[in-house]
Amino acid sequence: MKADQLRDMLLTLRFELRRSYGLPGLLGALMIVAAALMCAEISSVDADTKEMQDPARLALAAKAQHLADTRSVEGDAIALDALPELFPRFSQSADDIAAIFEQAHGSNLTLGSAEYQVNTDAGTRFTRYQVMLPVKDQYSAIRHFLASVLNSVPNAALREIHVERPAVDGNILDARVRFELIYRSAQP
Fold it and tell me: What stretches pass through the bilayer (predicted)?
């Protein structure tokens, strides 16, 4: 009942205003209200623009940004110095290789003879141990093996994978997987 009464009251108001001022008068009042809103918005934007153009404020903002960048660079340098300590020593390599073979056994994969290569670049604080594994199985088993190795050995990276299907109608794949295990060097 209240909605009907409100609608009747608004209709009555509309007819009374139209009768008193006419259609051009109502359109004029609407345009005056729109112009007042635009003036208020323009003055707000103008004040924001003047604040942004204030040279002292710009200098303070630039100085604050420079200080933040300096702190960020210093923090990055500290984090970079601490990075090698997050990696295990090379003495853990046998345990990591055992974990890779354990993951292969858990994925029911048959591994061929592996190839190993140790690289230590002069001037770096890391030793890279590359392990090349020939794998022969279905795609889902190989994918499960890769995911489980990367999840269980945090210092392992999948460096390369090469997959071939020997038979067109077969679902057994021949794959060569190269993992790179990263260790911190004994030298500083």
Answer: 21-38
What b/e string do you get for 38-50 counting C-beta neighbours within 10 Å, with b at 16 or more?
eeeeeeeeeeeee
DSSP H or E stretch at residue 169: none
Q: Is residue 30 part of a domain?
A: yes
Over the stretch 97-106, which tens digit does the pLDDT of each residue have?
999 999 988 8
**Does 106 lie in the same domain as 29?**
no
pLDDT tens-digit readout, 7-51: 888 888 888 877 888 778 878 878 888 888 888 888 777 777 766
- State the Rg of the chain over Cα: 36
Residue 187, SS3 per DSSP: coil
> How many helices (DSSP H) and strands (DSSP E) are in the chain?
4, 5
* Beta-strand relationship, 156-164 and 173-184: antiparallel
Q: What is the DSSP secondary structure assignment for residue 128, as one 8-state letter?
A: E
